[in-house]
Amino acid sequence: MRPPARLLHGAGLAVALLLPVAAPAPATSPARTPTALPAADGKKGQELPGMPAALDPRADEAACTPASGEKAKKQDWSRQRLDLDRLHGHSTGAGVTVALISTGVDPEAAGLDGRVTAEGAAADDCVGHGTFLAGLIAGTGGGTPKLVGVAPRAKILALRGTDRRGQPDP
Q: C-alpha dihedral over 117, 119, 122, 125, to 10 degrees?
């Protein structure tokens, strides 16, 4: 008996998403800030600062990660490869709520337009990582419509999976 095509597609997607997690760790530690990659148009890509996943646990009192002063001006190569304009022709995420388990999400973040539900500590994102991910998922791009998220009309349910400093907390 042959399984339905929808089941195979879902299984393939699950494998594709889990494969990078299952890959062995590199022998050397990766650089803290990613290197610039060439854009799809052959020009030099964006050079935005790296996003921390946690604050230094050894520091007695670390300040929260400030918002970057740098602004992206165009789509980077990865967004061009995803072909978000074509994807948004099929769906923009309207009516969908995405649960995001991370360092929290700032409900007042630009581009999320009041579509974040974050109770208690989940509304405090000192590290900034969860808010960054929420923008990739459901950001509207603010004044730059070419920098929208994958599902710009989706809602975000922020759940905190770390302490205030970004350390995992069951």
A: 70
- Start-to-end CA distance of the chain, whole Å, equals 42
Residue 157 neighbours by CB distance under 10 Å: 15
What tens digit of pLDDT does each residue of 124-167 get? 999 999 999 999 999 998 777 777 899 999 999 999 999 888 98
Taking only the tens place, the pLDDT of each residue in 104-117 is: 999 998 899 899 99
Burial grade of 125 (CB within 10 A; 0-12, 13-18, 19 or more):
buried
Identify the DSSP state of 126.
S
| Sequence-separated (6 or more) residues with CB below 8 Å from residue 99 | 157, 159
DSSP secondary structure of 28-58:
SPPPSSPPP-B-TTSSB---PPP--SS--TT
What are the tokens at 163?
């302490």
- Residue of 150, 140, 159, 19 whose CA lies nearest to 101: 159
